[in-house]
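Trying the structure run again after the queue cleared.
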Amino acid sequence: MSFAREGWPFIGIGVALVVIAFAVALQFRSWPLWLVAVVVTVLALWCAYFFRDPERTGPRGAALVIAPADGKVLMITQVDEPRFIGGQATRISIFMNVFNVHVNRYPVDGRVNFVWYNKGKFLNAAAEKSSLENEQMSIGVTTPSGVRILTRQIAGLIARRIVTYSKVGDEAHQGDRFGIIRFGSRVDVFIPPTSTVKVKLGDITTAGTTVLADLVK
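Done. C-alpha cells:
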C-alpha cells in the first residue's frame, strides 16, 4: 500500500514511538508499560491507515464530473458562486470522516485558472455555514469545452491542515491527485446547474471513481 507524502513524518514518528515504547517495556518488564506499548502501536497503525493513498481508476470522460473525495454525500443544493463560476451552480458536498482516504483528486480535465485560500474558522464541516466561514481552499478548473468546475477543500472541527498542490496555469487531469486534508473534513464541488446529478443524499463516494454528475443534461 502506498501512503500520501504528507503522512511520512507522522508515520515515522509513530514507528519511533513504538520502538521506544517496546524497548522501555522490555527493559522494565511491567505490564502497564506493555499496555502502553500496545496502545502506541494501535495509534501508529491508525496513523498509517489514515494516510493511505491507493491507486484509483474508474469512468473518465469530458462530460463526466468525478468525485474528488471519499466520503458521504451530505448536501446537494443550488447556490450562487460569484468568485469563479460567476453565478448559479449546483453544489455537491462530500463529508469525509477520519476513516476515509483523505487524498483529493481532480473531478475533470482542464486548466487550473483559479486558486483561492480563505483563512476562516473551524466549525463543524457538516454545517451549512462552514462552506462560507471555515478555512478553505478553492480550485477552479476550466475544461477544454469552457465549462467551469470549482472544487473547495473545507477544514472542520478536527482538520487543521489543508494541502493543495494546484497552481494557476497547471494542467488538471481527471482523477489525478491535487491535495489532501488532514483528519476529517469536507469537499464541495460546484457544477453548472444544467448538469445531471448522478448521486443522491447519503451516497458513499470514492475519489477518482464515483461519477457525481454528467455535464450534458
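Residues 8-28 form the longest helix (21 residues). Worth checking whether this holds up in the mutant runs.
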